[in-house]
Design brief:
The protein is built from 12 helices and 23 strands. By secondary structure, the chain is an alpha/beta fold. The strands form 6 sheets. Strands 2-15-17-16 form a 4-stranded mixed sheet, with helices on one face. A 4-stranded mixed sheet has the order 4-5-3-14, with helices on one face. Strands 6-7-9-8 form a 4-stranded mixed sheet. β16 and β17 form a beta hairpin. α3 packs parallel to α5 and α9 packs parallel to α11. The longest helix is centred in the first third of the chain and has 14 residues. The radius of gyration is 21 Å and the shape is globular. It starts with a strand and ends with a helix. 54% of the residues are buried. The protein binds shikimate-3-phosphate (S3P). The site of shikimate-3-phosphate (S3P) has 12 residues, from α1 and α5.
């Protein structure tokens, strides 16, 4: 994909639905009583993996435009589930299937098969789950077992790990308490509470008891992780407005970064939709200052770090990002691939075991970016190139389909 420089960039963008919320709406309604409609659903490849897996397990699901109709299975059936590239599908299913007491074999593509699964399997075993990984990785086998509630302290602040435990706890005897070191995104807690689960969330602690779910319609907000690319383009080259974006406080670390970098932005038309806060986000071209970001803020901006790194490369001064070692186990090793992307475009980046040091240049030259089959590297590279002197190209750009199928069309518009 060739990207030409945009010396002035402005527009009003309809960003696709939130990936995390679409996955959850499909997975949870897939085991609920009744029928639900998910509107403004993200139909990227990752969420379609969740749809395919829930169909294999017995839920009836129809996709129509950007709507997904889900009729939950009353008792899942044993299945082989291909989770594709989607870590959220595989990890949440591990807990969901364990809680529902059926056999399942979970597989994924090459990238997913290199991502750690014991971080989910090991705590699920504390509840009594019978789960076998392949030396820590996929394929993962889940077999029926009686689950018993207990207190679990997770080792990483990961919404995927937390959600898997909560889903398993829905089918466990007694009370399960899940505690995480830092608060990760809480869409699971919000949606399950709306579906009638016996669940109480208090800061980093969630208490759950055995529950059955009733279906709920979900209107999915635009994904702030996808809006982030157009927000960054506004800050670098003009003015952008992204409408109806989810601003759940567990997801808005990028706005904290904007505050520190001196980005001129505004939240307009704030409202609540299906239990999630939403706003239109306007961003205007700004002189950017360097930032220092540490571990505490990481869960709230983890997927945005590649595009935040692009902003740092265009900022004045040296930015230091630390406590971000989770980036090493995403769809690619995003510390390595982000550093390689910026270096290829003329940026000055030092890779650290847990982050980067980025010496801002105010302007990048341009060049060729290898996406390394990682959607967020492809889109961050496109932002960096659109703001660069010469532009350039992205190799392997088609991976944007994972989370943002019309990304390049929207960029061109
Ligand atoms: C997600 C949680 C995050 C995030 C991923 C989606 C989710 O992963 O990076 O893109 O929907 O729960 P971790 O839970 O591993 O931090």
């Amino acid at each position: 994909m060739k990207i030409r420089p945009r010396f002035s960039f402005s527009g009003d963008f309809k960003i696709p639905g939130d990936k995390s919320i679409t996955h959850r709406a499909v997975l949870f309604n897939g085991i609920a009583a009744g029928e639900a409609v998910v509107t403004n659903a993200l139909l990227g490849a990752d969420c379609l993996s969740s749809v395919a897996c829930m169909r294999a397990l017995g839920a009836q699901i129809e996709v129509e435009g950007d709507k997904i109709h889900v009729r939950g299975a009353q008792g899942l059936r044993a299945a082989d589930c291909d989770c594709g590239n989607s870590g959220t599908t595989m990890r949440l299913l591990m807990g969901l299937v364990a809680g529902q007491g059926v056999d399942a074999r979970l597989t994924g593509d090459d990238s997913l098969s290199r991502r750690p699964m014991e971080r989910v399997a090991a705590p699920l075993r504390l509840l009594g789950a019978d789960i076998e990984t392949t030396e820590g990785y996929a394929p993962v086998a889940v077999r029926p077992a009686r689950l018993c509630g207990c207190t679990v302290d997770t080792q990483v602040a990961s919404a995927q790990v937390k959600s898997a435990l909560i889903l398993a706890a829905l089918g466990a005897d007694g009370e399960t308490v899940v505690r995480e070191p830092l608060l990760s995104r809480d869409h699971t807690e919000r949606m399950l509470a709306a579906m009638g689960a016996d669940l109480h969330a208090d800061g980093c602690t969630v208490t759950v008891r055995r529950s059955s779910l009733r279906a709920v319609d979900v209107a999915v907000p635009a994904d702030i992780s996808s809006a982030a690319y157009f927000m960054a383009l506004g800050a670098l080259c003009g003015e952008t407005l992204c409408r109806g974006v989810g601003i759940n406080p567990t997801r808005t670390g990028i706005l904290t970064v904007f505050d520190q970098m001196g980005v001129d932005y505004a939240l307009e038309n704030m409202r609540t939709v299906c239990g999630e806060p939403v706003a239109d986000i306007r961003v205007r071209k700004s002189a950017l200052r360097a930032v220092r970001l540490g571990r505490a803020v990481m869960p709230s901006l983890i997927d945005e770090l590649p595009v935040i790194a692009v902003l740092c490369a265009y900022a004045d001064g040296e930015s230091v990002i630390s406590g971000a070692e989770e980036l090493r186990v995403k769809e690619s090793d995003r510390i390595r691939t982000t550093a390689a992307m910026l270096t290829a475009l003329g940026g000055d980046v030092e890779e650290r075991p847990d982050g980067f040091i980025i010496r801002g240049k105010k302007k990048l030259r341009g060049g060729t970016v290898d996406s390394c089959a990682d959607h967020r590297i492809a889109m961050s590279g496109a932002v960096a190139l659109a703001a660069s002197e010469q532009g350039g190209e992205i190799l392997g750009a088609e991976c944007v389909d994972i989370s943002f199928p019309n990304f390049f069309t929207l960029l061109d518009s």
